[in-house]
Amino acid sequence: MKQQEVGTIVGSSVHLTGTIKDSSDITIFGSIEGEILSDQRVIIEESAHVKGPINANEVVISGQVAGTISAKSRLELNPTGTIKGNVDTSELLIHAGAVFIGECSMPDKRAEGEKGEEFFETEEEGLKEKSTEAKKEQETEPSDLIFGRKDEEKDEDSDEERESEEIKAKEEESEKRKK
Amino acid sequence: MYYYIFEPAKTSYERSYIERIRDVAREVGIVSEMTQASPARSPEELAAMGIVKQYSTIVAVGDDSHINRVISQLMNLKPDFHYAVGIISTDSQSMLFEKWGFKKPEQACETLKFRKLSRFDLGLVEPNFYFLTSAKIECKKPTRVTLEVDHWRADAIIDRIEVSNNLYILVERFIKEPSLGKTAFNWLFGKSNLRADRSIFKAKIIRAVSDENLPIVVDKIVVGHTPCHIYRKPNALNIITKRDNISLEEDNQERNRNEYKEQK
């Protein structure tokens, strides 16, 4: 009779197939085969088994999930949790003991403000980029050194020239005196 | 004008309370006709008579079951007509008492006179029973039930299902405590060894299917059996509600309930 907002709870004795959609929190203790959609938070408890995609603002996983997860603001994987599937989130927290088999993609938060750090869709791409950067650095490092050496050489050359000029001047003075 | 349908009083306190409502309503001038249900005239018949006489405000006075029967009849006979329904709950333990319970008949009549209308959802158990409270499916032993709801379907072994008027579904399974240590501890301290596993869903239409035909009960009245559809009728009924208070509503409800119990 009360017309207040209560989230969806799937008990441990319930097996559900289909799409669950709720504007408030969804908590799962049982098993689900299908899609889970929430505007707020999805909590997968330890006893829960989920087969299908999850789409929510925040996702907390302590049970087993097989499917893609899209968490707009945050995804937390607790020590008892398992994810088999790809993850798309802006903040990821994995506790020790958790299992994550899949790929993770994160949006480039700092791209607009700073161009300092880059985010890659996969680890391989990131590693490739890093290795190319390192190569570039290796190539650039010697040239800097050469410039350094050249400057030093230039200084040394100028000293020698001065010395030779001084010697020449002394020799000329001594010849004049002899004359 | 106002047409009253009273439930027969069960206790002496209820009888005096109803008498006081009659007197105060006459004093305030919000009475056209007063009727009382009896074995000869059911609440449904009285509600039908009120419709025939073209009353637009029908007041049901009694417990949840009586109020639901009146509402159901009104909705079945003229679902599109915008009645104003007044409710005075006389059962302090009931669900409707929270919203429509009054410690004094004067308060009840003042609320009816002020006529602040709000729209409420109703539940409908197939084929034609409307309810403002909740429908229950209870089993003596754990039973497998399938709920088919909007875009999904749930299989569960249940002890009890409760469906509210706005179609919040509460599914309960009572599990015995598996640990012997905890069982002993609970026994020593007088706690229950049954742990409730609860599920809560929201829906617009539910279809409940079970191996056995389970009864669907609304306030102790069997209104149907599984397999059966339960629908939500949003904003189906205009009901006269209490005026808003500045103080906390919950505190008032609790105080009302306690004072009513003391008086009883």
Question: Can you give a write-up of this model?
Answer:
By secondary structure, chain A is an alpha/beta fold. Chain A has one helix at residues 123-178, and strands spanning 8-10, 14-18, 20-22, 26-28, 31-33, 36-38, 41-44, 49-51, 54-61, 64-66, 69-77, 82-84, 87-89, 92-94, 99-101, 104-105. In chain A, strands 1, 3, 4, 6, 7, 9, 11, 13, 14 and 16 form a ten-stranded parallel sheet that branches. The N and C termini of chain A lie far apart (128 Å). Chain B is of the alpha+beta class. Chain B folds into two domains: 2-121 and 235-263, Rossmann fold (3-Layer(aba) Sandwich), CATH 3.40.50.10330; 134-218, no CATH class. The chains are: A alpha/beta (179), B alpha+beta (264).
Task: State the gist of this model.
The complex is a heterodimer of chains A (179) and B (264). Chain A has one helix at residues 123-178; strands at 8-10, 14-18, 20-22, 26-28, 31-33, 36-38, 41-44, 49-51, 54-61, 64-66, 69-77, 82-84, 87-89, 92-94, 99-101, 104-105. Chain A has 179 residues and is an alpha/beta fold.
Proportion of β residues of chain B? 35-45%
Q: Total strand count of chain A, please?
A: 16
Q: Give helix and strand order of chain A, one letter per element, not per position.
A: EEEEEEEEEEEEEEEEH
Q: Termini separation of chain B (Å)?
A: 31 Å
Furnish the topology, listing elements before pairings.
The complex is a heterodimer of chains A (179) and B (264).
Chain A lengths: L7 E3 L3 E5 L1 E3 L3 E3 L2 E3 L2 E3 L2 E4 L4 E3 L2 E8 L2 E3 L2 E9 L4 E3 L2 E3 L2 E3 L4 E3 L2 E2 L17 H56 L1
Parallel strand pairs in A: 1-4, 2-5, 3-6, 4-7, 5-8, 6-9, 7-9, 8-10, 9-11, 10-12, 11-13, 11-14, 12-15, 13-16
Chain B lengths: L1 E5 L5 H17 L4 E4 L6 H10 L4 E6 L1 H14 L6 E6 L7 H4 L4 H10 L1 E10 L3 E3 L2 E16 L2 E13 L3 E9 L3 H9 L5 E9 L2 E6 L4 E4 L2 E5 L2 E14 L7 H15 L1
Parallel strand pairs in B: 1-2, 1-3, 3-4, 4-14
Antiparallel strand pairs in B: 5-6, 5-14, 7-8, 7-11, 7-12, 8-9, 9-10, 11-14, 12-13
Helix pairs in contact in B: 1-5, 2-3
